[in-house]
Write a structure and sequence with these properties.
single chain, about 375 residues, alpha+beta, five-stranded mixed sheet, 9 helices, 15 strands, binds 6-O-phosphono-alpha-D-fructofuranose
C-alpha cells in the first residue's frame, strides 16, 4: 500500500530491489528516519502526527546543513561573517546558514510556534498561516562547535522540543520556554562528522540514524542506544585547571591515578565540540565536564539548547547529567541563554565526580 510514508521512498525502494535482483545480496531492510518516526507514532496515542512532522522538518534541515558542511572547505561559505552573535562569538557564515535552514524548515512545516536559537538574542515567533494551530516550541543550537569549521573537526546541531504549556494562550513569549528539561517531548542532535548522524529521543529510548548520501536518507544504524555505565575517557578543557572548583581538580586527579581495577588512568579526550565529545561518550562510555571557570563562573554551556537536550538523551540511554550537584533536567530556567555547569556521561563516572564536588566544593552548589 502506497501512503505518504513510503511514496517519497519509492525510487529508493525500486533501486534497492533492482540491486537485489542483480546482486542477489540479501535485501537488508533499511528503516529511514521518516519510516521510523511514523512507525513509532503509536507511542503517542493522542498525537495526530504533529511531532512526527516536526521531527521530519528537522531531518530535512539537517540534510541541507550537512550538504554545506561537507563542502565548507570549498565553498565561499568558509570564514568569519565579520559579525558576532548574541554570545559575542565570531559568527561564521555556516552558523548563519544553519540557523536559517532550521528556522525555514520549522516555519514551513507548520508544527512549531516559536524558536529559541543560540544565534538569536530574542525568541523567533513563527506567526504564519500554516503554524496557526501549532503546539510546539523548539530550542536549538543550530551549529555548535563552529570554531572547528575551519579545521575540519566534527560539529553539530542540538535541538529540544516542548509542547506549549496549556495555561499559556495568545502570542508566544519567553514563558513558553521557561520549562524544565523533564518536560521535553523530544530532543536530539546531529553530528556532522566522518558521516552525518541524527540521534534523538522522545522519551522511549535513544535511536541513531546515519545519512546515506547515495539516497539522501537518514537510515536507522544505531537502534536502542545505551551509554555504558562506566568508561575510561574523561573530556574537560584542562587549560582551565587553575580555575576549576576543587572538586573538579580532585576528580581529574582521580582520573589520572593508576588503578587497574577501575581501568585508570583514563584517557583524556577533548575535541572542543560538545556534540562530538558527547557522541563518543554515548557509544564508548565516558564523562564530559564543563564546570564553572574564571571566564565562565556559571559554566559556559547553555541550559535550554545544549544541556537539557543532551541530558534527556543521556538519561534515556542510561547515563546521567548534573550541574555537579543537581539533576540538569530539574533545573528551572529563568532566561533563554542562561548557562550552567555540565557533568554528563556514564552514570558511575558522573556519580564519582559529584562525590568529589560534595566533598571538596559543596560551597559552590547552586542552591
Ligand atoms: P572551550 C563550542 O564553543 C562549545 O560550546 C562546545 O561545543 C565545546 O565543548 C566547548 O564550547 C569548548 O569550549 O572553552 O573549551 O574552548
Amino acid at each position: 500500500m502506497i501512503d505518504e510514508t513510503n511514496f517519497y521512498e519509492l525510487p529508493y525502494i525500486f533501486v534497492s530491489n533492482l540491486t537485489h535482483m542483480f546482486t542477489h545480496k540479501p535485501l537488508r531492510r533499511f528503516i529511514t528516519l521518516g519510516q521510523f518516526i511514523i512507525e513509532r507514532q503509536a507511542d503517542f496515542p493522542f498525537a495526530k502526527g504533529e511531532l512526527s512532522r516536526l521531527l521530519r522538518d528537522i531531518g530535512i534541515a539537517a540534510k541541507l546543513v550537512n550538504r554545506e558542511v561537507t563542502k565548507a572547505g570549498l565553498a565561499d561559505i568558509l570564514g568569519d561573517m565579520g559579525e558576532t552573535n548574541v554570545q559575542g562569538e565570531d559568527q561564521k557564515k555556516l552558523d548563519v546558514y544553519a540557523n536559517e535552514q532550521f528556522i525555514n524548515a520549522l516555519r514551513s512545516g507548520g508544527e512549531c510556534m516559536a524558536i529559541a536559537s543560540e544565534e538569536n538574542e530574542d525568541l523567533i515567533d513563527i506567526d504564519s498561516v500554516v503554524s496557526k494551530d501549532a503546539k510546539y516550541v523548539v530550542c536549538m543550537d543550530p551549529l555548535d562547535g563552529s570554531s572547528n569549521i575551519d579545521v575540519n573537526v566534527s560539529i553539530g546541531t542540538i535541538f529540544s522540543i516542548y509542547r506549549r504549556p496549556e495555561h499559556l494562550t495568545g502570542p508566544t513569549s519567553i514563558e513558553d520556554f521557561m520549562q524544565k528539561g523533564v518536560d521535553q517531548v523530544a530532543a536530539g542532535y546531529v553530528i556532522y562528522g566522518s558521516s552525518a548522524m541524527l540521534v534523538y529521543t522522545t522519551g522511549k529510548g535513544v535511536n541513531g540514524f546515519t545519512l546515506d548520501p547515495s539516497i539522501g536518507e537518514f537510515c536507522l544504524s544505531h537502534p536502542d542506544m545505551v551509554m555504558p555505565k562506566d568508561g575510561a575517557i574523561y573530556s574537560i578543557n584542562e587549560g582551565n585547571h587553575l580555575h576549576f572548583p576543587e572538586g573538579v581538580k580532585k576528580y581529574v586527579k582521580y582520573c589520572q591515578e593508576i588503578d587497574k581495577e577501575t581501568k585508570r588512568p583514563y584517557s583524556s579526550r577533548y575535541i572542543g565540540s560538545l556534540v562530538a565529545d558527547f557522541h563518543r561518550n554515548l557509544i564508548k562510555g565516558g564523562i564530559y565536564i564543563y564546570p564553572s571557570t574564571l571566564k565562565s563562573p556559571k559554566g559556559k554551556l547553555r541550559l535550554l539548547y545544549e544541556c537539557n537536550p543532551l541530558a534527556f538523551i543521556a538519561e534515556q540511554a542510561g547515563g546521567k547529567a548534573s550541574d555537579g550537584f543537581n539533576r540538569i533536567l530539574e533545573l528551572q530556567p529563568t532566561s533563554l541563554h542562561q548557562r550552567t555547569p555540565l557533568y554528563i556521561g556514564s552514570v558511575n563516572m558522573v556519580d564519582k565526580a559529584e562525590e568529589m564536588m560534595r566533598i571538596y566544593s559543596a560551597e559552590t552548589a547552586n542552591h
